């Protein structure tokens, strides 16, 4: 029986992905900043562990407590919508600490066991915004594009050890807590000079009938974890798939 460790399982794609793997008889280590036992059905195959990917001690403790794992899914992430000029460097660092450096820290923490066993799969969840630039998303897009570039290079470096690395690129998903969490970081990120422009961007948002469902992401992650012949980048969700096809 295989074991997967997933980051950011308190809601959204991470929670759905944990459920998806549980339903398919995997052992699941669902990690959350604030562990909650009531989010997923009780199972002997489920462990809920505390993990904040921005905290090196938390990363060390979670990976040590997890023991042997076969697949790491770096899903934890925060959004940020706003103009760079109105965004504090503290906020920029917070976004990169979680989305970019948190992903690298988790990969680094599991590599010794993967390398020793000459086996393992890493799936990094980034975003379809890296396929085509969108307004007022420069910081968030940069944090995810950096993970794409990191993952591409890492895949080559880990090939000799039979460690596979893949990317999943979800599209826009209004059904997760992502938008609410992103708005928390948005408080001061639209300066007056950008207000009119931002209004036009807001007006154009959410017009596409295609969206991404959490289930689309869980399916894409499952594929990346289980199918060695899958593409290196997997778009998840109708909007992301259409965008990837048009690029
Ligand atoms: N929803 C979208 O439109 C969309 C589109 C493309 C890509 N994505 C990406 O998909 C991933 C999942 O997003 P989602 O839509 O499922 O959003 P979500 O519902 O907000 O879930 C994000 C998860 O990340 C966790 N998290 C945040 N900071 C963390 C940290 N420092 N350490 C550990 N966990 C942390 C959150 O935990 P807490 O409960 O502790 O905050 C939450 O469980 C993210 O990487 C996001 O960038 C989302």
Q: Outline the low-pLDDT stretches.
A: none
CATH topology: Rossmann fold
- Distinct bound molecules: NADP nicotinamide-adenine-dinucleotide phosphate
Using the coordinates above, name the CATH class.
Alpha Beta
C-alpha Rg (nearest Å): 18 Å
Q: So how many helices?
A: 8
Major beta sheet, specifics? 7 strands, parallel
Structural class, from helix and strand content?
A: alpha/beta
The total of beta strands comes to: 7
Helix coverage percent of residues? Answer: 40-55%
Give structural notes:
By secondary structure, this protein is α/β, with parallel strands linked by helices. The protein has one domain: 3-Layer(aba) Sandwich (Rossmann fold). Helix content is 45%, strand content 14%. A seven-stranded parallel beta sheet has the order 3-2-1-4-5-6-7, with helices on both faces. β5, α4 and β6 form a beta-alpha-beta unit. α1 packs across α7 and α3 packs parallel to α4. The chain is globular and about 55 Å long. The site of NADP nicotinamide-adenine-dinucleotide phosphate has 31 residues, from α1, α3 and α5.
Please name the defining characteristics of this protein.
247 residues, alpha/beta, Rossmann fold, 7-stranded parallel beta sheet, 7 strands, 45% helix, globular, binds NADP nicotinamide-adenine-dinucleotide phosphate
